[in-house]
Design brief:
- By secondary structure, the protein is mostly helical.
- It is built from eleven helices and two strands, in the order H-H-H-H-H-E-E-H-H-H-H-H-H.
- Strands 1-2 form a two-stranded antiparallel sheet.
- Strand 1 and strand 2 form a beta hairpin.
- Helix 2 crosses helix 7.
- It is flat.
- The protein starts with 15 loop residues before the first helix and ends with a helix.
Length: 268
């Protein structure tokens, strides 16, 4: 389960998505996520499915690798679906004991499940095709206008990049701690959900100690290399938009137009 989380990992490949400017991928991911919550119709989600499938195909990242990331949120997904099924009032469809499944609840549950699934996969595409350094440069340059109002853009971009980079590291550390404790007789598999949650408590102390130790080592390494923020720093590989980036923005515009058109069609 721990190793199935794909957000924060990088998958090296030679694809047009990997070669895109990180700002283009950040904007594209944001546009895709926002569109999932703005347009709620079957036709709109068909458009979103086609768009996401095309991006995954162009990224050359195996689809099975992306789907692995859904295993980690399966419990959250099931809870969300169940709550929407039984707690949203509307036209009754099926009655199970004292619980009633309504038409509105069923529709909301289906759309919410699709949203969460596409949100995870869409975010994974960005992190799997973009290195942490590229993400830092992209966020910093994209948010550079905020420097005029004294927003520490470089520090914010650096913190977000480090946080993303630490996700797979902490997951690997958690897996090692679990295996070490299982070798000493710990049981993380048996029992119900509450019992499994309680069995995870002994993991927290060594995991927090390891995280703080890594953070301290990173801070000392950055200071030893003369890091004092982004003031006056230059880039070894400055970001520049290429023709493929302009083409990607055009594809995003076409995608949004198709989503608006699908919404209009669904309205009629």
């Amino acid at each position: 389960m721990i190793r199935d989380i794909t957000i924060g990992q990088y998958y090296p490949a030679d694809s047009v998505i990997h070669r895109l400017d990180p700002r283009t991928k950040l904007v594209g991911t944001l546009v895709f996520i926002v569109s999932l919550f703005l347009f709620k119709s079957f036709a709109a989600y068909v458009v979103a499915t086609v768009f996401l499938a095309g991006v995954i195909k162009a990224s050359k990242v195996p689809f099975k690798f992306m789907v692995k990331g859904l295993k980690a949120i399966m419990v959250l997904l099931m809870i969300t679906v169940v709550f929407n099924l039984f707690l949203i009032p509307g036209t009754p469809l099926v009655k199970i004991w004292k619980l009633t499944i309504t038409r509105e609840g069923l529709e909301t549950a289906v759309f919410m499940a699709i949203r969460l699934t596409y949100l995870i996969i869409g975010s994974s595409v960005m992190t799997l095709t973009t290195t942490p350094n590229q993400l830092t440069d992209g966020m910093e340059k994209g948010l550079r206008p905020l420097n005029k109002i004294h927003v520490p853009v470089h520090d914010i971009a650096m913190m977000m990049s480090i946080a993303l980079r630490f996700i797979p590291i902490l997951l690997e550390e958690t897996d090692k701690i679990m295996k070490a404790q299982m070798a000493r007789g710990a049981d993380f598999e048996s029992g119900g959900i509450i019992q499994k949650a309680k069995s995870m408590v002994p993991l927290l102390v060594p995991l927090f100690i390891s995280a703080f130790r890594r953070a301290n080592d990173l801070a000392m390494a950055m200071e030893a290399r003369g890091y004092h923020g982004g003031e006056g720093r230059t880039k070894m590989k400055p970001l520049h938009y290429e023709k493929r980036d302009h083409a990607a923005y055009i594809i995003m515009a076409v995608y949004l137009f198709a989503m608006f058109a699908a919404k209009k069609i669904a309205g009629f």
